[in-house]
Write a structure and sequence with these properties.
alpha+beta; about 280 residues; 9-stranded mixed β-sheet; elongated; 13 strands; two-stranded antiparallel sheet
């Protein structure tokens, strides 16, 4: 075989390798474009869901600072706690989503949201937004083990710990002792009633499903829950020492994630007040 024949046989092989590399490069570029498109779409969906929530808050609700009210108007109180006058257009709100049954407002935090409950899927609003789209930020919600009347021994509300501070992220502010002392009240509005809660404790807890671990209809088991949370001794646990909670009382437990501790939850527990 002549030398030039060897070179002529090697050229097709080199050309084939170039073609293969070009194909692989094209595949990588296409894959990168697809991933980038999916990421952009996900972020746009998240932004749209957050905007929908913000619009619902601003368009259909109004909170009046009680300091701006006259003396005669400042009569809406429970246990001496003045209730912020929030004007809620329930018909419009529930037309947006019929699963909305209450509204939670915590002065001093970013928490000012509708509360939802899906009739059959307890995890639905963990990953679905108020318009039914999937993804973050989700919604503030309860599971159907709870009634919608806030008459249960323990009503548990769930919400994501969002990086932008929305949903239940600002609950982590209660790690600070001064913030804990200065922002004690939670207000729940429904079409027929308004409930006032005073925050009793804020702590890290295990990620155990509270309704699987405790039977709150059983006073002994409810008492075990109160003992367990009172026994938390983490450094930034906050407890209002001038308050007591017994199994005769109703509490609101707000639960969110801890970014650095996936096997734990951050709980803010509040006691329902009655005149």
């Amino acid at each position: 075989m002549k030398p030039e024949d060897e070179h002529s046989e090697g050229k097709p092989q080199k050309q084939n390798r170039k073609v293969v590399w070009k194909i692989l490069l094209i595949i990588c570029i296409v894959g990168l474009l697809i991933c980038t498109g999916l990421l952009i779409g996900k972020q746009m969906g998240k932004h749209r869901a957050q905007q929908d929530m913000a619009n619902l808050t601003t368009e259909h609700t109004e909170v009046t600072d009680t300091q701006e009210l006259s003396t005669e108007e400042q009569r809406n109180t429970i246990c001496g706690v003045e209730i912020p006058e929030k004007q809620l257009d329930w018909e419009t709100i529930q037309n947006e989503n019929p699963d909305i049954y209450a509204w939670i407002y915590i002065p001093g935090t970013e928490v000012d949201y509708p509360v939802l409950q899906h009739p059959t899927d307890n995890s639905y609003y963990l990953n679905h937004n108020i318009d039914g789209s999937s993804g973050y930020p989700g919604c503030i919600y309860t599971e159907n083990v709870n009634t919608k009347t806030f008459e249960d021994p323990n009503t548990v509300l769930y919400g994501h710990d969002m990086k932008d501070g929305s949903m239940f992220a600002s609950l982590h502010n209660y790690r600070d002792p001064e913030f804990f002392q200065n922002n004690p009240y939670v207000f729940i509005y429904t079409p027929t009633e308004t409930y006032v809660y005073e925050i009793y404790e804020a702590c890290e807890f295990s990620d155990v499903h509270l309704f699987y671990e405790y039977d709150f209809t059983d006073p002994a088991d409810y008492g075990r829950f109160l003992t367990d949370i009172a026994g938390v001794r983490e450094m930034d646990t906050q407890i209002r020492k001038d308050m007591t909670i017994t199994t005769e009382e109703k509490v609101l437990t707000m639960s969110t994630c801890i970014a650095t501790k996936p096997n734990n939850r951050y709980l803010v527990i509040a006691k329902q007040l009655h005149d």
